[in-house]
Specification:
The complex is a heterodimer of chains A (498) and B (343).
Chain A lengths: L6 E10 L2 E11 L4 E5 L6 H8 L7 E6 L2 E3 L4 H6 L2 E4 L11 H6 L12 H15 L14 H14 L4 E5 L7 H16 L3 E5 L3 H7 L2 E6 L2 E7 L5 H9 L17 E10 L3 E9 L3 E6 L5 H9 L6 E6 L2 E2 L5 H6 L2 E4 L3 H5 L6 H7 L6 E2 L2 E2 L1 H14 L16 H13 L5 E5 L7 H16 L3 E5 L3 H7 L2 E6 L2 E7 L5 H8 L6
Helix pairs in contact in A: 4-5, 12-13, 12-14
Chain B lengths: L4 H41 L6 H26 L7 H18 L5 H24 L5 H20 L11 H8 L1 E2 L2 E2 H19 L1 H11 L1 H6 L4 H27 L10 H11 L11 H20 L4 H32 L4
Antiparallel strand pairs in B: 1-2
Helix pairs in contact in B: 1-12, 1-13, 2-7, 2-8, 2-10, 2-11, 2-12, 3-4, 3-5, 3-10, 4-5, 4-10, 6-10, 7-8, 8-10, 11-12
The chains are: A alpha/beta (498), B mainly alpha (343).
Bound molecules: adenosine-5'-triphosphate and magnesium ion.
Protein name (chain A): Rhamnose transport system ATP-binding protein
Membrane topology (chain A): Peripheral membrane protein
Subcellular location (chain A): Cell membrane
Amino acid sequence: MEDTPVLSLLQVSKAFGAVRAVREVSLELRAGEAHALAGENGAGKSTLVKILSGVHRPDSGRILLDGQPVEFAGPADAQRAGVAVIYQEPTLFPDLSVMENIFMGRQPRARLGLDRRAMRAATAELFGRLGVHLDPDRPARGLSIADQQLVEIAKALSRQARVLVMDEPTAALSGQEVARLFGVAGTLREQGVALLFISHRLEEIFELCQRVTTLRDGALVATDPIGDLTPDALVRRMVGRELEALFPKQDTTAGEVALSVRRLTREGVFTDVSFEVRRGEIVALAGLVGAGRSEVARAVFGIDRWDAGAVEVDGRRLRPARPTAAMAAGLALVPEDRRQQGLVMDLSIERNIGLAGLTALRRGPLISRLAERERARDWAVRLRLKFARLGDPVNVLSGGNQQKVVLAKWLARRPSVLIVDEPTRGIDVGTKAEVHRLLSELAASGVAVLMISSELPEVLGMADRVLVMHEGRLVAELDRAEASEESVMAAATGRGRP
Amino acid sequence: MTSAASSVTSAGRGGGRRLVDRVARVRELGIVVALGALFAVTGAANPSFLSYGSLRDILLNSAIVALLAVGQTLVVITRNVDLSVSSVVGLSAFGGALILADHPGVPVPLVIAGCVALGAACGAVNGLLVGAARVPALVATLGTLYAFRGVDYAWAGGRQVNAADMPEGFLALGTRSVLGVPLPALVALAVLLTVGWMLRNLRSGRELYAIGSSPEAAVLAGIRVRRRVLTAFVANGALAGLAGVMWAARFGTVDATVATGKELDVIAAVVVGGVAIFGGSGTVYGAALGAVLLASITSALAVLRVDALAQTAINGALLLAAIVLDRLLALRVAAALRRRRSP
Ligand SMILES: Nc1ncnc2c1ncn2[C@@H]1O[C@H](COP(=O)(O)OP(=O)(O)OP(=O)(O)O)[C@@H](O)[C@H]1O
Ligand SMILES: [Mg+2]
């Protein structure tokens, strides 16, 4: 007996002005099955998710719930129908506690008022299942991207939904958290939950899912059982052409020291962190979520203050907590949190790209709009940015395309030391290779690159040296020959300290 | 991020956490401390400031603004603002007084209910403009500030209602004391406690905070944002209506200019009380305490014989100090939170 899908889309379309984001796509989500949605940046995946979750109403086509047509007038309707969604961009309330974020609108009630104790216990239980160490009472403000994502996951799980939609939940997570998430997802699947999973890490799709639907330019390419596909075949479906292999870093000879960090300490966050990055080198900073990698980057760049230690760029000492001085010294940082720190969401694409390097665009006291546009166009082509017009605000771009704008903004600056925090978060396979090639070229031209990445293949493929952090300390330094999946993971989890 | 992760952070966590926890409560605590200091200093200079009569006056004077501040907080928490409250107070005060003067037969409770309903209707107009027509609250309520006042002027047509025209029983409501506490202050307190409880313990109350904290996330969470914002405006209008009756009962003389400019006092009280002007945080208790503090300062300056012009300047300086303090505290909290990860 062929069971009816829990939720299905029939020939749905959605356009934003002239942009046809989704074109007559059909999709079936079945109980107990994990279904993957694959496609390049801007292919329409998140738009499809938002149709399923009632955020967007399809221009045409139908949604069926247990075979019956339904209309979702808003997210509340979809939630009531048993659809829980983890959106690509975290959607937390910064002023409210983590537990209230999880249970907003569904807080457990006692006889008089809310039962905060039950809410705390339920949150702790969810966090336990996910292996998250967060205080349920702390406000969501100040959480790292990875932690925000984990809270989002807990929130979706708490709904005990029939359909769980996950739009790039793993983009900021490292191996250990992903494994936990997949463990939980596997259990849900056995309990008969229908899963929809989106990721640009293809190995994750092959690990978790049974079927894959591929989108290209908003249109359906195919839906296949996972067994019928190889990763290469999937890429071909997504991109529509053959793809060169992931770009390995070209060998360069390291020059003099460009960035030197000595015994840097920020109380309660990281301790005694010392390392150097030479010109021409790409040094990766690996570790688990919460190991303190982004925090080190933020301190070096001067966003956060450090309590002890020293940072030198090209032999010149930086004063703590002075990002402008750091930038003047030739430092650039591509932050992990593009919406909060990387972009001005309401500003246009060209403006955002121009922002970090305004000096180069100056003609006398004015900014040359022509030069700005030229530069934006150039970078848009190099990074395969998918956009309607360069004058559009960045918040209408897809997640991966926003990330490309952040990258362009800082790469266009030609810094002498470049720190990139999760540079390819949410970027599709094709462009990822392009970003890697760009980073490699930059290094070859004498830039010192410090790269934070939770994606091991990226670390292993790109880095000349790998520094591994564990619980706020640098625990290992591995050169290219020593670095392997096993050695990095061992150091990152605190085993096998050299 | 294994269990030992907490050991790294524990060094800074104790201090950071204590700071965060204290700051979370410090908003209200800070005002209480400021009040204490004010009373100690002024009382030392002039002991009559601490007399029963003087304290009673302060309570009476702050009751109406406190009531309005509670209502305003509901709106501000959702990242909106209601500038029109003073006009609603004026409309309700005049309407109530007029009915009482011209139709002595109408029972007082009915008049009060009518005034509250009138206020709620005004609030609904604001709420619909902001929620349904998507006019920014600042602009919408600036418009209704003038519109409601205009209605008030047209209705009054230059007329003034005097205490002698209103029943004794009604006027007594504005001045009578129960167990030594003036009735308007008791009403304000009852409203304060009720609204405070609701904001903390009803799901809808929590949703107001969620809306102000992140409107986009509120939509995705399935919160009916427009309905909630409308409710906040209606509740605020109803409280303004109630404040209008209290005004009429307390002062006895009512014309179309009642409460003109009061909206600024109310917003000042809310801001001094630690309610974030961009929404998402703050409590009604803080706002009410802010109202009491501002009224106390006015009284203290009068007792200390500071002239009226300087009083305005001092109030202004205080407001700025409160805003700066708010900003500094927010930065401290943000820094502390970034250090704090593990439980
Ligand atoms: N609100 C909006 N207004 C205008 N255009 C939009 C809007 N949302 C999405 N788009 C456009 O629709 C297209 C599809 O975007 P979508 O976010 O669905 O891509 P995606 O497949 O999720 O990509 P990514 O992998 O980068 O997350 C993009 O071209 C994007 O610019
Ligand atoms: Mg997307």
